[in-house]
């Protein structure tokens, strides 16, 4: 009997260390951004601020105790080469950048994390928006707390019809496309956006003279009249379903919150097998 209990405990620990796909228990939650609002403290415990030289430049999502998901272009340098892991740090449990930098986070919830490995998708190139997704391996595993938690990642078989659903994008990016008029957010912000049909999104871009092609590994989210969108430095951050499952990664677009030009996201469900393989060491 003792051996049986020991085996069950080991199995349970192994399961908890795996990626938080929706067929495993994961925390459900009620759900700088243009046209959004400030998030509540601890509302999005899966959020990560990626930093270089101490400054925020991209977002990310905790999906495992050792792995963070972000956009491929977030790990490219000015020479269009993949950066070294030691050039990037992360902050988890973050709410206010100012509080963290000035060491006035009274609850000490925000923690710096370091990376030991960067894994872009094998078909990603820094000068291309296709397969805009990457994994960052942590130097040490994260100890989860009520305010630092992994996101649930959809493991649905086959493409989910997300057309007309609403989702939430979040980040510390700019609040206006024109950086002379806006500012980069201090407190984590969020916004609700509407998911578009890919063909309708592509038609809307083409009607405005843009040549963007929307592949089945991407999705669009925003509004026909603009006004609400992700923006500069929100890249790499999560697009979450109303059930708070990770649907997309902030990837690209034309400007921020322009009418008829919704934001373009990497569709995470298309990369679940790759994510599993990387985490399980099968690549």
Automatic annotation (TrEMBL):
Residue intervals of the Peptidase S1 domain = 33-280
Is Cytoplasm a UniProt keyword of this protein?
no
- PROSITE patterns the UniProt entry points to: TRYPSIN_DOM, TRYPSIN_HIS
Q: Name one GO molecular function term.
A: serine-type endopeptidase activity
| TM stretches of this protein | none
Extract the Pfam families matched here.
Trypsin (PF00089)
For the keyword Glycosyltransferase, the answer is: no
Annotated GO biological process: proteolysis
The alphabetized UniProt keywords are:
Disulfide bond, Hydrolase, Membrane, Protease, Signal, Transmembrane
The residue range of the signal peptide is 1-17
Q: Return the protein name.
A: Transmembrane protease serine 9
**Which species?**
Drosophila lebanonensis (Fruit fly)
